Amino acid sequence: MSMYPDEQTLVIGGEEVTYPGLDAGKFTDGDPADPTKKPSFIPSASINLVLDNLGDFITRAGLTPNNTGTRQLWDALWASIKPGVVWMFDGTGWEDNVTLPGFYACIPENEDGGANGHSFGIKSMVDRFPMGKAIAGAGVQGGANSYSLTVGQIPYHDHSINHDHPSVTSGTQSANHTHYVSGTTANDTHNHSASGTGYGFERQGSGFVLGGQTYSSWSITTTNYTHSHSWSDTSGGNSASHNHDVNLPTFSGNSGATGNGDAIDNRPSFYSMVFVRKCA
User: How many domains does the chain have?
Assistant: First the structure.
């Protein structure tokens, strides 16, 4: 099915003529060098059909068709694209209102109050994905390219710790050994008293020696003088047989905290292009 007219056979002056005389389904100018190849007739219905369709397209675009303008189809084409239509432009060298008349890039500079001073109602699409929305909710911006999980967003979980030590008993006896201890008393002033029966003591210098006289009982006290005493001793061999019970308690609790809380990039793989919006 096409807009070209169907072929008909007419008799003009006793001669059969094919009307409109298409060549391979299209109008032809014929061939002046070959009289058998006649030019096509263009029926008025075909001309009217073409003009009516063109006029309807121009009218639907909101323009008024006329019989003099040479840009009517071009103007009607862009007028038929209503403000708010968003396309994607893949490439470099985009110029607002030049690359595509009436189209402006959806960038922060073109937003209302942006650096370019426009008031078209453009929303920046830089680093954003379009999302389907009800008509009443169109134009809403949201989401983020990355985010950090809150405690409430982490799946419910814990880290259990249950570490036990079995009960053990130490050995029964230490190895055969001794302990040597020694020391010196403080240097202070004091005396010494002694008493008993048998031979007495006689003072000699700073000490006493056994005397040669026998007493049934005796006692003696030195005078006070300042001096100290050195002493030492060594313990015996093995300790008494014994042992020590060891039972470390079971430890239960939670592991320590870890992690940095770095932001997560939640974007899928992408290919970036420029969003452009029809504004005028």
Answer: 2
